[in-house]
Each structure stands twice: as structure tokens, then as C-alpha cells.
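REQUEST FORM: STRUCTURE PREDICTION
Request ID: SP-0412
Submitted by: Lab K.M.
Chain count: 1
Length (residues): 127
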Amino acid sequence: MPCYTAWNECLEPGTAEYARAEDVVRAKLQAIKHIIDYYYAVNDCPLPMLPEGVYVDPLRQPKSSKEGQIRQAICHHFACDEVSVSALYDACSLLDEKRSEDRAYLAVMLPSASLLREHPEKFRTVY
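STATUS: Completed
RESULT:
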């Protein structure tokens, strides 16, 4: 896997260029959240709820086979939409792990990024 460079690493906060880049990442975050929401809703399954202060492990294993199937479907959708691992990491950077809703998305997005990285041939992973 190529080295990851965060979307804001070379940008100065408060500049127009930073704001434009952040808008692009926020749009990607909304699209990613929409995909996640869709698969959890279709499967009548709530997003994972992690207690405050719990580390969101990028290698977090699904709590059930159903959750594992949902994660697989999400990763296939990411592959079809060419959502890159970098886009997932960038989107995660805008989430606040202190917020319950954001932790739920992190609990899906980070392990999904790991799954994409672990199985590039299966998901046609884009970095």
C-alpha cells in the first residue's frame, strides 16, 4: 500500500485552499455515511454503538455474522464507487470520537478500510 498523506497535511487552516479541500472531504464523508446508513437500514440492524472512551480499533471484528455480511457489502459498494482507502481515512479525520454518532461511523469506516487493505483482490481496492 502506498503511504497515506492526509488531505490537510500540506494546507494552512483558515485559507481558501484549506476550506475547498475540507468541503471536498465533507462531501465524501456524506456519501460514505449514506452508504453505511443504507446497508445497516436495509438489514434492519443498528450501527455499532461503542461506549464513550472506548478505542475504535481499525481491526475491530464484527460482533455477529450479520454485521460481518453488512461490512462485506459496504466494502463491495465502496469498490464499485471507487471509494479509496485514503478517502475513508480522510473522512474519518472529520469525525469526533467523543460524539456517539461519530464513534458509530468510525466503528464501521476504520475496520472497512482495514478489510479493503487486507483483501485488495477481492474488493479491487483503490488506495
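NOTES: The longest helix spans residues 16-42.
Reviewed by: T.R.
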